[in-house]
Amino acid sequence: MLAELLKACAAGDRVAFRRFYDVSSRYVFGVVLGILRDREIASEVAQETYVRIWKRAGHFQADCGNPLSWIGSIARNCAIDRLRSERARGFVQFSDEIPDISGDPDPASTTLDTMVIRKLLDELRPEYRQALLLSYFQGYTYIELASVMDVPVGTAKSWVRRGIAALKEAMI
Known about the structure:
The protein is mainly alpha-helical and 172 residues long. It is built from eight helices and no strands. Helix 1 packs across helix 2. The protein is globular and about 50 Å long. The chain starts with a helix and ends with a helix.
């Protein structure tokens, strides 16, 4: 359904875009809120996400991927762009805190997928887990990650790559 709606959006169908928004807005907001942790800023970034989706709907190729993954990538990139912008202006400080990955402040709404991801992350070596969470959910660059974790940049890159590889292996 999302792929068809994206195709219609690419053709300029505003009704399809409204339906697309209705179907995907909770997901997009959850992705953005999970990274930014501020509901007001997350609302702004979710709106920016939909502007990007509207402009890029024609770039989605249904035969190359899942529409939810494509939407999630755009939402994540928008959130990380905002996070880095705020950080560069001094409004956000680095934190060693490992973020909650649910994207929803209500623990009762935790999905099975989120619980599985948490379990898999908990089974990783601590440095891999922290590197993945800081880079993916807080938008740290490798240089920022190395600084926060007090390791060389190459080590930070390796930990992220090894963490991803370990997650892939655990999912098989």
